[in-house]
Write a structure and sequence with these properties.
Largest sheet: 5 strands, mixed
Radius of gyration: 30 Å
Number of strands: 7
Strand order of the largest sheet: 2-3-1-6-7
Number of helices: 17
Strand content: 5-15%
Order of helices and strands: HHHHHHEHEEEEHHHHHEEHHHHH
Oligomer: single chain
Structural class: alpha+beta
């Protein structure tokens, strides 16, 4: 019992180290190994370990570690050495590598012992995959995704969000970007003089079809591979929604899915070997469950967002609006606390504020502030930069096209108001994207009308006598 628990602790510690060790992390790992011979509970085990630990090759390899994988392989070698010295007839771990016990007889056969540096890349990868499967998955906090495994128990009501997406869907990427500020364990709704506290259970489900034993993703096989590796990040790194950062990184350039997985794993200190092996072994089953869940919920478009508490489930009409998502979250949380619909007005007001903030952020990202002397793109060539002073006070089509022409202190408000007027959206559920889409439709109609008028002129010219 003691030995098994100790090896689980040591291997798990190694598998959760950073990908590259700094001087402090390396020193801490070496000191931990040195302390075993001094304080381990079994005196006979301490003496046996010390003989192996003192071997010059073993010492050189220990002090030469620089990465997580180095530490994993060093412990793997020591563990096999202990096994071979106590049970020479046993197969070495992993059995698939077909290694011989005599290569681990330390210190009796130090001259012929296995050197970690001499492992071929294929054998090295095979050993690391076996180590990760056995100890990274069976220990530590990032074991698997159960109900709300991402967040510690808080005692507050839990509101669940189901976000249905595709790995290479541009609308899903934008929807995730917009609502990402809300994706955190602590759910707080500040509603006038009331503050409601809750816990968020956020889940992403990929959408596709199941055709017999085959999975089909709308955007092709690369998207399917992306789905697999993201579900594995979700499985092994759920705490505080770390996997959401990984997914967002993957979707920066969706044409590079899944090629960017390694770089994104390194960026967020995730074990890419673990994710890669998981995608091969568990990826199909993970994605199949997602696809079937989407089919069961009759999801026919992405992104689709449901917010629920217990058996009560609501669909967010505009999942690309942070205001709409926040409105539904707070409405469900208020109902869970027995305070809805009494505070509906406060919920709506808070949602509007969130949408305005989102619009401001989107405008800044899509249109960086221009220099003071540069005129708006939509302004007539003859207009000077100071033209806004002479503009009519009423909101016109011209001001809707060129929000920069509004007074400086009211730029955001004028933009939002013009978009809402064009869209005809309700004051209760409005969003930037709804207004923007409607403006595009109106612009398209104008262009079509102009083209039609021009075509009519040409036809008249052709039919008119000379």
């Amino acid at each position: 019992m003691l030995g098994r628990a100790s090896w689980t602790f040591l291997h798990s510690t190694a598998s959760y180290l950073p990908a590259t060790l700094d001087i402090h992390e390396k020193s801490a790992f070496i000191e931990l190994m040195n302390d075993i011979k001094l304080i381990y509970a079994c005196s006979e085990c301490r003496a046996h370990f010390d003989k192996i630990f003192a071997d010059p090759v073993v010492q050189t390899e220990l002090y030469g570690i620089a990465t997580r994988e180095d530490a994993q392989l060093w412990l793997w070698k020591i563990h096999n050495a202990v096994t071979s010295n106590n049970f020479p007839s046993w197969a070495m771990f992993p059995e698939s590598a077909k290694l011989h016990a005599k290569e681990f007889l330390i210190p009796e056969s130090s001259a012929t012992q296995l050197r970690i540096a001499n492992l071929t890349p294929a054998v090295r990868k095979e050993i690391l995959a076996a180590l990760n499967k056995r100890w990274h998955m069976s220990a530590g906090l990032d074991k698997t995704t159960r109900a709300n495994d991402a967040c510690p128990s808080s005692g507050y009501e839990t509101v669940r969000v189901d976000f249905f997406a595709m790995a290479q869907c541009p609308f899903c990427r934008e929807g995730l970007r917009v609502i990402k500020p809300l994706i955190k364990c602590d759910l707080t709704c500040v509603l006038g003089d009331k503050t409601l506290q809750g816990t968020l259970d956020f889940r992403i489900h990929f959408v596709g079809s199941v055709e017999g034993k085959k999975l089909v993703s709308l955007h092709g096989p690369n998207e399917l591979e992306g789905d697999k590796i993201i579900t594995c990040a979700r499985q092994h790194y759920p705490m505080q929604y770390r996997w959401v950062d990984f997914m967002e990184c993957m979707e920066v350039d969706q044409s590079k899915i899944p090629a960017d997985a390694s770089a994104c794993a390194a960026k967020y200190n995730m074990n890419f070997t673990l994710l890669e092996d998981c995608a091969k072994e568990d990826g199909f089953a993970n994605v199949k469950r997602d696809f079937e869940y989407g089919i069961d919920n009759k999801v026919d478009a992405t992104p689709t967002v449901f917010v629920s508490h217990g058996a009560t489930k609501h669909k967010v009409e505009n999942p690309g609006s942070v205001g709409d998502v926040q409105h539904m979250l707070c409405q469900v949380l208020a109902a869970a606390n027995g305070q809805y619909p009494a505070i509906e007005a406060n919920i709506t007001k808070a949602a509007h504020a969130a949408d305005k903030k989102s619009v401001k952020k989107s405008v800044k990202e899509l249109h960086p502030p221009a220099k003071a002397k540069s005129a708006p793109k939509t302004a007539p060539k003859g207009n000077a930069p100071s033209a806004p002073k002479a503009a009519p006070k009423a909101v016109t089509k011209k001001t809707a096209k060129a929000p920069a022409a509004a007074p400086k202190g009211k730029k955001l408000q004028t933009t939002a108001a013009a978009l809402l007027q064009v869209a005809g959206a309700s004051t209760q559920f409005h969003s930037f994207w709804t207004g923007f889409g409607s403006a595009c439709v109106m612009m398209g109609c104008c262009i079509a009308a102009a083209i039609g008028f021009r075509s009519l002129q040409r036809r008249r010219a052709i039919l008119s006598p000379l």
